[in-house]
């Protein structure tokens, strides 16, 4: 588990970027529901945590590709590949992302 932030530091409509095991991860508070996805747009190198959040969708700030935070699937071009999603947990007011490194993968 990776500690993302205190829940009170991630109000609805906001996102934080954290260091993941392989790449940055964006954690979003979409109207009180927390989601975590790879932070980098699959179309081009842009931070999704700096994008626009509407409901459970995030729009990339570079070329307006949109992703469903529930599935990671792109909802419009120019992105064609999904972003990876991660489980998010809250314990004692702290947000955690389950993004452990798989030690079996070389």
Helix percent reads under 10%
Number of distinct helices: 0
CATH architecture: 3-layer Sandwich
Which spans of ≥5 residues are poorly predicted at pLDDT below 50?
A: 102-106
Mean pLDDT: 93
Structural class: mainly beta
- Secondary-structure element order, N to C: EEEEEEEEEE
Head-to-tail CA distance between termini: 20 Å
What does this structure look like?
There is one protein chain. With 106 residues, the protein is mainly β. The protein has one domain: Rieske [2Fe-2S] iron-sulphur domain (Rieske Iron-sulfur Protein), CATH 2.102.10.10. 0% of the residues lie in helices and 38% in strands. The protein contains no helices and 10 strands. The protein has strands spanning 2-6, 15-18, 25-30, 33-38, 52-54, 57-59, 66-68, 85-86, 88-91, 94-97. The chain has a 4-stranded antiparallel sheet, with no helix packed on it. It has a 3-stranded antiparallel sheet with strand order 1-10-9, with no helix packed on it. A hairpin with a 2-residue loop joins β9 (88-91) and β10. The model is unreliable at 102-106 (pLDDT under 50). This is 3-phenylpropionate dioxygenase. Residues 2-97 form the Rieske domain. Keywords: 2Fe-2S, Dioxygenase, Iron, Iron-sulfur, Metal-binding, Oxidoreductase.
């Amino acid at each position: 588990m990776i500690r993302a932030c205190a829940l009170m530091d991630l109000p609805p409509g906001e996102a934080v970027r954290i260091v993941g095991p392989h790449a940055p991860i964006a954690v979003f508070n979409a109207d009180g529901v927390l989601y975590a996805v790879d932070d980098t747009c699959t179309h081009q190198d842009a931070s999704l945590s700096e994008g626009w959040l509407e409901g459970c969708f995030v729009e990339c700030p570079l070329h307006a590709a949109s992703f469903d935070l529930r599935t990671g699937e792109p909802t419009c071009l120019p992105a064609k590949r999904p972003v990876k999603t991660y489980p998010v947990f809250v314990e004692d007011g702290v947000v955690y992302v389950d993004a452990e490194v798989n030690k079996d993968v070389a």
